[in-house]
Specification:
- The structure is a homodimer.
- In chain A, a hairpin with a 4-residue loop joins strand 2 and strand 3.
- By secondary structure, chain A is of the alpha+beta class.
- Among the domains of chain A are: about 150 residues, Butyryl-CoA Dehydrogenase, subunit A, domain 2 (Beta Barrel); about 350 residues, Butyryl-CoA Dehydrogenase, subunit A, domain 3.
- Chain A is globular and about 95 Å long.
- The first copy, chain A, is about 50% helix and about 10% strand.
- The first copy, chain A, starts with a helix and ends in an 11-residue tail after the last helix.
- At the A-B interface, helix 1, helix 5, helix 8, strand 6 and strand 7 of A face helix 1, helix 5, helix 8, strand 6 and strand 7 of B.
């Protein structure tokens, strides 16, 4: 308590001191010649921010250190907790060291042309990976790489989805031949699935691979404009090879979609005969990636280029199955990618929170005593002290913690699945659950992250619109993840299908395990939704009980899934076609699935909190859990579950928890442990020297490299009144009293 | 009814025909030499889209014409309705003709560098306005200009906010001297208000203008890093002048913020002595604008450069008031700007809807009969037929109609206010209402538009991320409007303050008029919120009654404002400081204000619908009103007003109305009447030839102008296995069975 008072007193004293110094600066500025005159390339950062405002200092250097003094928990312990242990932190630090930019370069990309982006992306990616030459990364290491270096660039495709397809779909021989060549950049590759007219509905692809018995080859064609390969990264300019998704046609018969490997550029990096390649054009972000197109005209590849882990055409020209497994195993690559994207969603949102919360502590606006007559030299409020700003940012902070921990859980699930079940019998069952979970979570987590990052960005006001803020580029470069690898709507509907099936099998007497276990209650004796309701809270304190919150989220998932299942079955029972009833119920299915995924995220969050052995950490994490749950109840239309009275209680809880979290705000983002060179942000710097940094970056603007601007002579000068301009700021004659 | 059946039959027949043609194309493509080989610059658009898929046609040309046949209303009549009459349509067409790009150039800007953007912006703006030389635009004309040409570029600032400040704050002499020079581009100007450390809190600005009695001049300074002028458009590179907001200091006394005009660049377009100018750096969008910074060091301007409509320093050096009016009149410029932004919000959302809805009709994904074994040549579903897509897009369509009509109403209010009350006595009263209304509506409408545009963009999947889609650039170039001219949160809290005052004055016995009239009920005998509730609906049909919907929205506004007023008063009554209580209630204040603004929008929407004399138009507009209201009830947490049962009824209403609207979807966006050259979209074209257009734009990508890409030799080639690449797609030796 006494510490708190001291901090407040310190703050007031500090403010008064700063105002006094500004006053003196103002007096000086009217008499002395500035050190800035005519010096347009001053490096403001080298001049160092100090705690007093001056011509070279924003006067904000003391703010974040003061904030850090208020922390109620040990930041280092929290860092280890979030990374999964001290050893993991060490490993992450190692990767971070190799992969991040030099601190002085953090804003250079903001002035890049598209060509610069592509070139620099290739250079960076190869140089980093050459440093990792003798390092065999785990799934978690790869995740650390992804979270540290965003954008990624073109070759990211080669090392991830291209390579993973070879490993996932290729025979052992094919893996051995192609795999090492990819890893050492002897070849570079693209994942050529989508087409100009065809997206994630794989079965609709029109590219054909016609087997020619005479030559023992496939003839590859994109026979229509709509079938041009469209959007694969690394396809347009950088890739020498690709894995191609095409309809296999044998003896005039459709055999369905198969995957092939093929070379697309020769040793001079020119497209091979019959192949037209190019980039699809500039995008909102991710511009280091040569998202490409490809036209194929009677391109021939040998029979052995079909990836043949599961099926092949044998030496006798017969189509045959090689390995008999559940067809969904083919999707393990996709599931892994989606799982990785869940992890990345938490990382990106955490980065956005770091920038926005630090900036909101540094940025001041509005007077403490908001009355007319107050001098402009009076200290203004930290914008982080406005409750609306707190609500928006702390909500996202809680989301970020939730998503980070979900990501860790998801990566573990995938790793366990891979190591426990390859070759064993229980594969299929676990696979369905993990496929559905990863689809639903990918959908919801990218949605939460995209929305949250953008709201954090808006919380940064005008400066959040500048590329140098870092949060704008983060938002733009991340945006595509909500659409790629399965649009979020489509993926959630996949999960919805799984959930309806689960309900059907419970009704059929089956017992469910894992994340859908809560559905078993439906078939219990005397079940009704009303009876399952955990009851209304009697006071706002109940909304701080984690188990109660989990019960509520579980109930919402149960309620909405049962309701939509009933509705759907009724429609089908009345003779409606499956697809039509499905379409009719789609909005409710979506909401039911989100409720399910929210329940998974929340219950995992609660479990993780209970794992920590540090009381201070448990305390602050508990507050985040409460905020995560309660802001959802307020913003996500729980009108079907809770009544008006409950909303009032929840509001009260949120208000209390926000006040409790305020002193920890900066330490909670410090605990994400993203160094400045990773955030690449002028306004989210660790030291809080925001204004020095913004101004420094501005001077490097591409427009400031020439003056007058290009186009001045041709387009502006002819219209200007040069005679008037010659006079400068002198009273105008003959209008003396103007 | 029979027409409907015919259309369905036609559609099926058309689909079968198209499939047959694709089948033939596929056969041909395997035997004939393609006309495309080696021809990388084919103009696919010149080849014209046809109704059958081929190597040069996407086969989508018939889709939108078929959709248009289904329309239930006269599109031309709707166009006139939205423009405010036939004459207005004519006027808009005239402006559009001058101001829009040539159709062949619509995607060129997607490959622009920042320098190109700036240059082209200046060229365009001057050339358009030279064409309007003898044209005196009304407020509505200016609105038509804004809605037609987005981006606007640097000089937009000169002709709008710079000029408006001279007119609004300058004496008659000053207006006469500077005004015509701005209009004819003899000078160009910027509105220099915000600073590096200070945003919309005008009183906190630190730039000083110290009056020097000896020379009868002002000495201008930006004494600290935080006080550097930051963000004004047209300041960095293009402007020769600016209006400067600065603290006036006379004889050591602070006189508060005053506005000055000053020259910043000389006849060679170099900054004047003591002035440092530059651009603040690249942004997410709006990159034709040289958003700038300015350092001032002892810059002297004559006394007559202070804008002196209301106050001045007279010839005796005495500070005096010239015109005595309510201080809020100063803000009329800002109010007009905000009013204009309300209008633009509707326009931009309408443009986004046009692109997304046309694309969703053209784009197909997912099979009609979703079962394994279906051939890839089977016709897929229009994505517009998925209920989730409909919900998202039709909701925004309804929002766009609502916002467009709100914009018209707002512009009329401003025009009426201006013409009726200048110099009259009732000024102050009307002013407060219009100031509060324009602030609240600017906040809500830009929020609806920003969110809506971005959701429309997401509905376009991957292609919506491409700049050539037009909807991505629309989203990015529009985004800043939610922050500029008053951040949306701050503005809504301004309105909240006005509403609390209204409630207080009702309680004090005053009668309110205009948009706040509904609050009078509070002081009526025996008033209670429960009694004021319009009652629950008994069936879903009641949610199609416009008057009932208006009553519900009015009630929500009443309920939330009364609740927050009570809460606030209680806190203040318990001894809490005004600002602290205000901060505590901020979230609820925001929600109360939005409810108020939503009520204004809805009731205006309903009034406008009743004005139309065409039955078919009234019918379709009524459906949009219902959807506007009902989607808000579903998505905006009405749990405090409505119970679970009501949500079910509303869902049913929404589902019915969506089906009713489906045949009109394309005609409803056609009625916004934005030509292709204004939309600048490959995927939102009037003719629906989406794939030809996308591919055409892709070929122009800046990356496709060189091959191999810049950087290939230095960074990629050294790592590639050139020996392997020389072999091309041949079986690998010595691994024959690979």
């Amino acid at each position: 308590m006494s510490t708190k008072v001291n901090i407040t007193e310190n703050r007031i004293e500090g403010a008064l001191k700063r105002i006094e110094v500004v006053r003196n600066q103002l007096k000086q500025s009217q008499t002395s010649v500035s050190e800035l005159s005519g010096n347009k390339t001053t490096n403001y950062l080298q001049l160092q921010g100090s705690e007093t405002q001056s011509k070279t200092s924003g006067g904000t250097a003391g703010i974040l250190p003061r904030e850090r003094q208020k922390s109620t928990f040990n930041v280092e312990a929290m860092i280890h907790f979030l990374n999964g242990g001290k050893e993991m932190t060490k490993r992450r630090k190692f990767i971070e060291k190799v992969i991040s930019e030099k601190p002085e370069d953090i804003t250079k990309k903001n002035n890049f042309t598209r060509e610069d982006y592509l070139k620099e992306g290739v250079r960076e990616f190869i140089s980093y990976h050459k440093s990792f030459a003798n390092f065999r990364p785990t799934r978690k290491d790869i995740f650390f790489m992804s979270e540290t270096s965003y954008g990624g660039g073109s070759l990211n495709n080669s090392h991830s989805i291209f390579l993973m397809t070879i490993v996932g779909q290729g025979s052992e021989e094919q893996q051995k031949f192609w795999g090492p060549k990819v890893l050492s950049f002897q070849i570079t590759g693209s994942y050529a699935q989508t087409e100009l007219g065809h997206g994630s509905n794989v079965r609709g692809l029109q590219t054909t691979a016609t087997y020619d018995r005479k030559t023992d080859e496939f003839i590859l064609n994109t026979p229509t404009l709509q079938s041009i390969k469209w959007w694969p990264g690394c396809l347009g300019k950088v890739g020498t090879h690709c894995v191609l998704y095409a309809q296999l046609i044998m003896d005039g018969q459709e055999k369905g979609i198969h995957v092939f490997i093929m070379q697309i550029r020769d040793e001079h990096h020119h497209p091979l005969k019959g192949i037209t390649l190019g980039d699809v054009g500039n995008k909102m972000g991710d511009n280091g990636n040569d998202t490409g197109f490809m036209i194929l005209e009677k391109v021939r590849i040998p029979r052995s280029y079909m990836l043949q882990k599961y099926v092949r055409i044998n030496d006798e020209g017969k189509y045959e199955q090689v390995l008999k497994v559940d067809s969904k195993v083919h999707y393990f690559t996709m599931m892994s990618t989606r799982g990785m994207m869940v992890g990345v969603s938490g990382a990106r949102l955490a980065q956005a929170c770091t920038i926005a919360i630090r900036y909101s502590a540094v940025r001041h606006q509005g007077f403490v005593d908001n009355k007319p007559g107050v001098s402009y030299l009076t200290d203004e409020n930290q914008i982080l002290d406005y409750k609306i700003q707190q609500y928006r940012l702390f909500k996202q902070l809680a989301n970020a913690y939730a998503l980070k921990l979900t990501g860790i859980w998801m990566l573990n699930e995938l790793t366990n699945f891979e190591s426990n079940t390859v070759g064993s019998a229980i594969k299929t069952e676990g696979l369905k659950e993990i496929a559905s979970t990863s689809a639903g979570l990918k959908s919801l987590c990218t949605l939460i992250a995209v929305t949250g990052i953008e709201d954090c960005r808006k919380c940064c006001g005008g400066n959040g619109y500048l590329l140098s803020s870092g949060i704008s580029t983060l938002s733009l470069d991340y945006l595509w993840q909500i659409t790629a690898e399965g649009d979020y709507i489509i993926l959630s509907l996949l999960t919805a299908r799984y959930l309806l099936k689960c309900i059907a099998s419970v009704m059929g007497g089956k017992h469910l395990n894992g994340v859908v276990e809560y559905l078993n209650i439906i078939s219990s004796d005397g079940f009704s939704l009303e009876k399952a309701f955990p009851g209304n809270a009697k006071n706002s304190v109940e909304y701080t009980h984690l188990d109660y919150l989990v019960e509520l989220f579980k109930y919402r998932a149960l309620y909405r899934n049962v309701m939509v299942a009933q509705d759907f079955n009724e429609q089908v029972g009345n003779g409606m076609k499956f697809e039509e009833a499905w379409n009719n119920c789609a909005n409710d299915l979506l909401s039911a699935t989100y409720s399910h995924s929210y329940y998974i995220i929340l219950s995992n969050f609660v479990n993780k909190v209970k794992e920590s052995k540090h009381d201070d950490i448990v305390k602050v994490l508990t507050r985040l859990v409460i905020l995560f749950a309660c802001t959802n109840m307020l913003d996500d239309n729980w009108g079907d579950i809770l009544n008006n009275n409950q909303f009032k209680l929840i509001n009260q809880t949120v208000s209390n928890v926000m006040s409790e979290l305020r002193p920890d705000a900066i330490s909670l983002v410090d605990s994400f442990d993203y160094p400045d060179k990773c955030l690449k942000s002028t306004i989210g710097r660790y030291d809080g020297n925001v204004y020095e940094s913004l101004f420094d970056a501005a001077q490097k603007s591409v427009l400031n490299q020439t003056d007058p601007f290009d186009g001045y002579k041709e387009y502006l000068r002819p219209h200007l009144n040069l005679e008037l301009l010659k006079r400068g700021n002198k009273p105008i004659q003959p209008t003396p009293k103007l």
